[in-house]
Amino acid sequence: MTTQASAPPPSTKSQALRSYDVADFPALTGLEEEWRFTPLKRLRGLLDGAVSSESAHWPALEYGKLPAGVTVGALAKDDPRRGSVLTPVDRVSARAYGESELGTLIEVAREAVVTEPVIVTVHGGPSDVVAFAHTFVDVGVLSESVLVLQYEDSGTLADNVEVAVADGAKLTLVTVADWADDAVQAQHLKIKLGRDAKVIHIQVTLGGDLVRQFTSVEYTGRGGEAELYGVYFADAGQHLEHRQLVDHNVPDCRSYVGYRGALQGESAHTVWVGDVLIQAEATGTDTYEINRNLLLTDGARADSVPNLEIETGEIAGAGHASATGRFDDEQLFYLMARGIPESEARRLVVRGFFAELINKIPVESLREQLGDAIEARLTKAGA
Fold first, then answer.
1. pLDDT tens figures, 226-272
2. What pLDDT, on a 0 to 100 scale, did the predictor assign at position 10?
3. For residue 357, is pLDDT > 50?
4. DSSP string, 276-315
5. How far apart are CA 143 and CA 165, in angstroms?
6. How far is CA 217 from the centre of its chain?
């Protein structure tokens, strides 16, 4: 009997396996580099569980009156746009691609300047029902818009989100995972930028038992700009995992990644892995990524892994940084020396830690909602 050696792992991110067929991805063991931080057992049935007929009824969408230039409708399984931006890079994403039927199509018309934010809320279903979903966001040439995708209630969901930002368009995309405590989500969000297009993505993760979000960016023309920001707050027992891959594959493009997280409670666990690939042809690239984590209590754990892979020396700049620590005693002392009680001083420090990123959200009601949610968590912990 002969034993065939397993194929070596890809040497670069550009060589990673990509396929729409779940059979092309081997069963996960938890030893894989991309999955070594994820507690696979807590993914429930997303890896190989049966899809219930009940899953056809959720997730359900809710949105109000849409502004001129924006439409929300169904994405057919055979729509040629489906899969034109995102090719799955893991087993869960491939399964979501194959199992999801009717998806959601959000369109911003060519040259439309949308002055009001478009808010779409995704409501989950029963936590014991495995469901898959697909969303395509089609942003027209030279348009400007703000889109908010909110995820609420319970559920076990794997979903793919494709975002095509055409030449000269500007999109601010806010995604908010404010799930119930027992929810599980594994998401792949892929952004493709046209020439001189710009996207600002703010990713907020608060709720859920386990939430794993992978965001990737690809450029199709010179002058593309991507700014990726993240705010997350893990409570006791929560696992919140964020991964990014910014693939600089054309010249003269820019990216910035800035994520901040707070953790409190026993077994609160966050993971941030930021990968930036600058391919040989991507001369003139300017990129930077940073992750900061604030540990509020004992028993919490933050893993932070920034990675730069550079194949050309002809770039404008590239850098990365990561920091994880506890409260700054000097900040607390400064506030308490001015008569502010310790509990209130701690709240002020945490609010200040998040303020810069929350203020980037161009929807006042959402900024207030997030501020209230963070305050509630601090109060719950007696901070």
1. 999 999 999 999 999 999 999 999 999 999 999 999 999 999 999 99
2. 52
3. yes
4. EEE-TT-TT-EEEEEEEEEE-STT-EEEEEEEEEES-S--
5. 9
6. 11
Measured CA to CA, the distance from residue 10 to residue 28 in angstroms comes to: 16
77 CB burial (10 A radius; 0-12, 13-18, 19+): exposed
Is cis: bond before 59, omega within 30 of 0? yes
Look up residue 362 and give its DSSP letter. S
Query: Got the DSSP string for 242-265?
Result: EEEEEEE-SSS-EEEEEEEEEE-S
Return d(Cα 266, Cα 40) in angstroms, integer.
19
Element (H, E) at 126: none
Among 262, 206, 202, 243, residue whose Cα is nearest residue 226: 202
Burial (CB count within 10 angstroms: exposed 0-12, middle 13-18, buried 19+), residue 148:
buried
Q: Where are the beta strands (DSSP E) in the chain?
A: 60-62, 70-75, 103-108, 118-123, 130-139, 144-152, 156-165, 170-177, 184-193, 198-205, 210-219, 225-234, 239-248, 254-263, 269-278, 286-295, 301-310, 317-325
pLDDT band at 157 (very low <50, low <70, confident <90, very high): very high
Phi and psi, residue 348, nearest 5°:
-65, -40
Cα–chain center distance at 260:
13
**Starting at the edge strand that comes first in sequence, how are the strands of the sheet with 225-234 ordered?**
60-62, 118-123, 144-152, 170-177, 198-205, 225-234, 254-263, 286-295, 317-325
The pLDDT of residue 8? 47
Residue 139 and residue 199: Cα distance in Å, rounded? 10
Residue labelled with tokens 């540990």: 295
Percent helix, percent strand, percent coil in the chain, to nearest 5: 20, 40, 40
Sequence-separated (6 or more) residues with CB below 8 Å from residue 237: 209, 265, 266, 267, 268
pLDDT tens per residue across span 307-329: 999 999 999 999 999 999 887 66
Structure tokens at 16: 């990673």
